[in-house]
Specification:
The protein is α/β, with parallel strands linked by helices. The chain has seven helices and seven strands. The radius of gyration is 19 Å and the shape is globular. The N terminus is likely disordered. The structure holds zinc ion (ZN).
């Protein structure tokens, strides 16, 4: 199970992470986030409905095996709530991509197989939720392990040990590879969605900033309390389709109403945010309803190793 050096995972032509331009872009990203309303699109927006139904009618054409369109769930989580919700709607899907299910995105062979699949046109929709422990601002809080990256040093602190720097590079690789896979799906007219917590430092990364503007410019913030969870937490979704606006729900409650999550540690020293990482069922169902029109129906769960056997 070899691991590529992190820089080799970048698409050709992208910039190194430390440039004067990067600082400028980072400042622009901060301005962008400060201006971003809690709901990028109001939940009541219905103008996306025609595009949804249009996609629906298109998906009906994919009746033959050769035109099957599957859902790709990258970092599905142990209980893979979105894959389950998609299956409940009879949508075709690929096996979940997550280390806990035996598919490690850091493994070069796995990544290459996934990239060929994503580039084949068989993925109707893909969701990536790259884990963000090293991107979390929670690591900047006191009384815990020293942070390995900060908003000023997104590529890792100069004082990092080799092991700490390796952790930074793995985290960056996971995010880079997630974007590469989603871009391949986007090039074949598939729906792509990327999610991280609103507080994740990944949104400060110049490469992420550029990718969002180029590929996934539609954004929606979903507050946990609107999906039946009493958490002071919000997920940020970006997508290449405006239908993502269906997820946008803001918290109408006063500050301090909900259980604090960000930066709160459990007795064993880990962050409480880890146990809130998987989506509530209501959120998974809302995602599945956006994803389903881009998929065909009636095929078995596709194994990554088997996709080339499709007719
Ligand atoms: Zn609320």
């Amino acid at each position: 199970m070899g691991k590529l050096a992190v820089d080799s995972t970048r698409p050709p032509g992208t910039k190194s992470r430390h440039t004067d331009l990067a600082h400028t872009i980072q400042c622009q990203m901060h301005a962008f986030l400060e201006e971003l309303p809690t709901e990028f699109f109001p939940a009541s927006v219905v103008s996306v409905s025609p595009s949804l139904s249009s996609s629906c009618s298109q998906s009906r054409k994919f009746s033959s095996q050769s035109a099957a369109r599957f859902f790709l769930d990258i970092f599905s989580g142990a209980s893979m709530p979105v894959s389950t919700a998609v299956q409940d709607l009879a949508g075709d899907r690929v096996e979940p991509v997550d280390l806990i299910h035996g598919l490690d995105l850091l493994d070069d062979n796995t990544f290459e197989s996934l990239l060929r699949l994503a580039s084949s046109g068989r993925i109707g929709a893909a969701l990536a939720a790259p884990y963000c422990c090293k991107h979390s601002r929670a690591t900047l809080r006191p009384n815990g392990p020293a942070p390995v990256r900060t908003p000023e040093f997104l590529d890792g602190l100069p004082s990092n040990t080799t092991q700490q720097q390796l952790a930074v590079q793995e985290s960056s690789t996971i995010h880079d590879r997630s974007r590469i896979l989603l871009s391949a799906v986007d090039r074949h007219a598939g729906l792509v969605i990327l999610e991280n917590p609103s507080t994740s430092m990944t949104w400060d990364d110049p490469l992420m900033y550029e990718w969002v503007h180029a590929v996934a410019p539609y954004a929606a913030q979903a507050c946990a309390c609107q999906f039946d969870k009493d958490w002071a937490k919000a997920w940020m979704f970006v997508s290449n389709r405006p239908a993502i606006s269906h997820l946008a729900r803001s918290c109408p409650h006063p500050a301090g109403t909900h259980e604090p999550i960000v930066g709160v540690r459990l007795p064993d020293g880990t962050f409480k945010s880890r146990i809130t990482a998987e989506y509530p069922a209501l959120l998974a169902q809302a995602l599945a309803s956006i994803i389903r029109p881009f998929l065909t129906s009636g095929h078995q769960v596709l194994q990554v190793d088997d996709w080339q056997s499709l007719a």
